[in-house]
Write a structure and sequence with these properties.
The structure is a single chain. With about 90 residues, this protein is an all-alpha fold. The chain contains 4 helices and no strands.
Length: about 90
């Protein structure tokens, strides 16, 4: 009877044949690949934010002429905002 009980315990602690992994193997794989999975999740989140259709930010594009650009470039510090708008153009 004892031998039968020990046989059941031993078979419960070993993985069945095939591709089934033990809990220790799964835990080892997870720890080894945890940083890769976190980077993948962060990348997927960033892609989702790029495609987020709920964002309602719009930009108006202003037409610039050559004389305005020359004046902006003469005093870059005072016209920083306008030059950034020009970069979007």
């Amino acid at each position: 009877m004892r031998e039968l009980a020990q046989g059941k315990n031993e078979s419960a602690n070993t993985a069945p044949s095939g591709n089934v992994k033990t809990a220790a193997e799964i835990q080892e794989w997870y720890e080894k690949n945890k940083s890769h999975m976190e980077r993948f999740d962060a990348a997927m989140s960033a892609v989702k934010n790029l495609r987020d259709i709920t964002k309602s930010q719009t930009r108006t594009i202003t037409a610039f002429n050559k004389d305005e650009v020359v004046n902006y470039l003469k005093n870059i510090g005072a016209n920083e905002v306008r030059l950034r708008e020009l970069a979007w153009y």
